[in-house]
Design goal:
Length: about 475
């Protein structure tokens, strides 16, 4: 057997987080060797995988972009290919792309206490190969790349047209002049509906229950103004802070005054849609931010409904029929194509099996330390972004912390960092959203604890203080 390749830091995943982690390492720990193992053949993760029409962010790029690389395009709500280009550019200009091994799927990682190193098992097209590393960074995202969540409906074998899932959008699908039913009411459904409506004969958004949908300008005029007066990094940093503070302000407001904020959001939708507004399609049964808010740039969904060839049908699906579907209420939706925008299958740590000295570590039973390490699992970090703000805000902070931790270990001559679980700390679910995909995900995700440093506050400002300035050896994390 060939000797495993050894690096100081092994990063799993070449998406937004993996490339970001590499850039932070290069800057903060230039003496450390690193490699990125990527299961697919491309950089970009989410932003390369999803190819459905209109694919775009629903966060602004000033916070979804890296802190260290200004987002320069005028579009604050960017399309998928532009985000993929931004990630690829980051990798190319820093020569991170030379450190990526494509077609390498990490299937298992075992920590050896004797060697203070990870032994990582990797599948390629033709082989199983091994790597060893001192520190493992799981930047593998949070969902199953193999397939999305796709419920089965009674009678679906009778439906005459194609049923497609946005995660595996067929390039050849032609919806021009056709009737399309989009099942779902999340970010993907609200993106797809106005985009398909440009050429479809009719698009119906079929939702079991409504979501809060809010319109936001796709171009940030304050950012554009700042760009005219200030150098790009300064304009970017200011806009990033503006958006961090505004998002945090609206989130807190929504949590403190849910009824007022709900009424306001519904009133805004009503005024954008006009006469075709039907309250039963836009009045969710939960409070704002009990689930992620759906954002529509420049109100494109509302305009499409107002202009006539988009409608919304609310209710549970009773069955699919040869020519569409029928709701339990009896309402019939005619369709030639059905799009199942029914979400993702959430998985933890890229579906890799984790073990410590040969003993399997059950990720779903571990507690998360500072939202990025697993209790009793040494020298491993995973990157998981915010649910109420842009993913990258937390990813950047996690990577800054990684750099601080590695430097501290070098300075103190220690090799092992581990957060030991305190059995006294009350266990609570990892995420507190009520969305279907979060509820389905909870059994596979690790747990959080009811207090610091095991608690996830979903709060950038608090995390910034803790991760950028807090003590590394805080009484829970021990270095040895
Ligand atoms: C359609 C869609 C829209 C989104 N929009 C937003 C948004 O607007 N704002 C926001 O904050 N978040 C958004 N998200 C969340 C989004 O996933 C994150 O913003 C971000 O892209 C995550 O980056 P990542 O690198 O952590 O994960 P990913 O983008 O998922 O990349 C993970 C990479 O790891 C690789 N990988 C996984 N498992 C393994 C393994 N075992 N071995 C080797 N490689 C592996 C994958 O192939 C992939 O390349 C969106 C998600 C989706 C699906």
């Amino acid at each position: 057997m060939t000797k495993p390749v050894h690096v100081d830091v092994l990063i799993v995943g070449a998406g937004l987080s993996g490339i970001g982690a590499a850039a932070h390492l290069q800057r903060g720990c230039p003496d450390k060797s690193f490699l990125i193992l990527e299961a697919r053949d491309a950089i970009g993760g989410t932003w390369d995988l999803f190819r459905y029409p209109g694919i775009r962010s629903d966060s602004d790029m000033y916070t979804l972009g890296y802190a260290f690389k200004p987002w320069t395009s005028a579009k604050a709500i960017a399309d998928g290919p532009a985000i993929r280009d931004y990630i690829c550019e980051t990798a190319a200009e820093r020569r991170i792309d030379r450190h990526i091994r494509f077609g390498h799927r990490v299937v298992a990682a075992d920590w050896s206490s004797a060697e203070a190193a990870w032994r990582v098992e990797v599948e390629t097209d033709s082989d199983v190969v091994h790597f060893t590393c001192h520190f493992l960074v799981m930047a593998a995202g949070y969902y199953d790349y193999d397939a999305g969540h796709r419920p089965r409906w009674s009678g679906e074998e009778t439906f005459k047209g194609p049923i497609v899932h946005p995660q595996s959008w067929p390039e050849s699908l032609d919806w021009r002049g056709k009737r399309v039913a989009v099942i779902g009411s999340g970010a993907t459904a609200v993106t797809l509906v106005p985009e398909l409506a440009r050429e479809a004969a009719r698009v119906t958004m079929v939702q079991r229950s409504p979501s809060y949908i809010v319109s936001r300008p796709s171009v940030d005029f304050i950012a554009e103004g700042l760009k005219r007066w200030l150098p790009s990094p300064a304009a970017y940093a200011l806009t990033r802070w503006k958006n961090v503070l505004l998002t945090a302000f609206f989130y807190r407001l929504a949590r403190r005054r849910p009824d007022r904020v709900a009424a306001k959001l519904i009133a805004l939708a009503k005024s954008d849609i006009g006469e075709r507004f039907d309250a039963s399609d836009f009045t969710p049964g939960y409070k704002p931010w009990d689930q992620r808010l759906c954002l529509v740039p420049d109100g494109d969904l509302f305009t499409a409904i107002r202009d006539g060839n988009v409608s919304v049908a609310t209710g549970s699906i009773a069955q699919l029929t040869p020519s569409g579907l029928q709701l339990e209420s009896g309402e019939i939706v005619e369709a030639d194509i059905i799009v199942a925008a029914t979400g993702l299958k959430v998985v933890a740590v890229g579906k890799a099996r984790i073990s410590v000295d040969g003993e399997p570590a059950d990720v779903s039973q571990a507690m998360v330390y500072k939202g990025m390490m697993l209790s009793d699992v040494p020298n491993m970090m995973f990157i998981f972004g915010y649910t109420n703000a842009s993913w990258t805000l937390k990813a950047d902070l996690s990577c800054e912390y990684l750099v601080r931790l590695l430097r501290r270990m070098d300075a103190s001559g220690t090799r092992v960092a581990v957060a030991r679980r305190d059995p006294e700390v009350e266990v609570i679910p990892f995420l507190d959203f009520t969305s279907g995909y979060v509820k389905r995900a909870l059994p596979v995700l690790p747990k959080q604890g009811a207090r610091r440093p095991w608690r996830l506050y979903q709060n950038y400002l608090l995390d910034l203080l803790t991760l950028r300035f807090g003590k590394i050896e805080d009484g829970t994390l021990s270095l040895s």
